[in-house]
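Your task:
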Amino acid sequence: MADILPLLEEIAAIGRIGLTYATNVYDRERYEQLIGLAARWYGQSLDIPPDDARERLALDLKTITPKVGADAAIFDSDGRILLMKRTDNKRWCMPCGLEEVGESPAHCATREAKEETGLDVRIVQLVDVFTRLPSAEYTPYTLVSVLYLCEVTGGELRSSREDLGLQYWHIEDVPEWHGAQQAQAIAAREAWRNWFARR
C-alpha cells in the first residue's frame, strides 16, 4: 500500500495556506474541510483519534522555524549570470523561491528556474547554503537559502508574472541587487569557473 502521509501533509498545508489568505466565509469553510479530511485520514493511517491527528498536522503553527528556499545560478558561456528584475522592489536576483511542502531544495531550484525563466536546467553542484536574518527591508523571518549551480538543458528564455525582465549580466555591472544576492552570485561564479574549466 502506498504511503499517503506525504499527500495528507500537502493537503493540510493547502488548507492552512488557504485559511491565511481566504477573504470570505465560504472559502474558509472549504479550507477547514480540507484540513479535517487530512486529519481524519492521517488518524486512520496511524490509528489515532482525529483530534490528535489534527493537532499533529498543526504543529508547525506552534513551532516557528526558518523558511527554506533555493536559488538557481545560471551562467552563459561568457560567464554572465542570468538575473530577473523583481516586480516587488525592481532589483535584480537569481531565479529563486521558497520550497513547497514535500519538495527538496534541488527540485525547488529547478522548478523556480522553469517557472521564472522558461528554461529547463539540471543541477551541476551545490554552491553553498546561506542564511538571511530578519530585516525591515525584506522579511520578518529568517531565510535559509540553498544555492545551486545549474546548466541549461532546454526550454526557451521568457519572462513571467514575477519579473520585469530577464537578462544575463556581468556581476560587476548589475545596477541594484536584491538582498544578499550579489555575494551569492560571486560564490556561484567561482563555482562556475571551476566547473567550466573541467569541462
